[in-house]
Amino acid sequence: MTPSTPDFTLDIAGIAGACPAGERYAAGQIAARATPVLSCEGPCIRGDIARMAANMVAEEAPGLARACHAEAFFVPHSAMRRWVATAERTVMIDGCFLECHGRVLRKLVPEEKVVRFDALSYYRKHTDVFSMNAVPEAERRACARQVADAVIASLASGQRQEACTFP
């Protein structure tokens, strides 16, 4: 039997203020009508590869820019949240089938506006490794490059990735 958890909520402590740099950055992205790119940011190999791939995608694909998931998710009055929530579409690169960030994003952005990718389904390596430091950086970058190339090609063609089948 596979463990499963029904929908749940977390109580998050409130916050006053917002990141001044994040506010300027997000306001500029809103004005430019840029598409936010979010990714898994986990410390495991899968999260590191997804993060690197998202950086590559945002740097190389016109009209895309990285968004701060923490500010978008946990600072509801921020420009970062407003950008992610109101963008025409949002790109989400999850690190694996758990879709940790993607599951949060689905509560913030209508599902039809999210273009989701599972990084692991592109490179299919290191499934028995947790620590990103257990894999040499050059290998992590090569895997991220594979993911980024696939994501950029998919976005250019207008295709959406189906749900991951690689648990």
Q: State the helicity in percent bands.
A: 40-55%
Q: Give average pLDDT, whole number.
A: 92
Alpha-carbon distance between the two ends: 14 Å
Contiguous uncertain segments of 5+ residues: 162-167
Going by helix content, strand content and strand pairing, the class is alpha/beta
Biggest beta-sheet profile: 4 strands, parallel
Describe this structure in words.
The chain is an alpha/beta fold and 167 residues long. The chain has 7 helices and 4 strands, in the order αβαβααβαβαα. It has helices at 20-32, 45-60, 69-74, 79-86, 100-105, 120-123, 137-157; strands spanning 35-39, 64-66, 90-94, 114-118. Residues 162-167 have low confidence and may be disordered.
Q: What features would you highlight for this structure?
A:
single chain, four-stranded parallel β-sheet, 7 helices
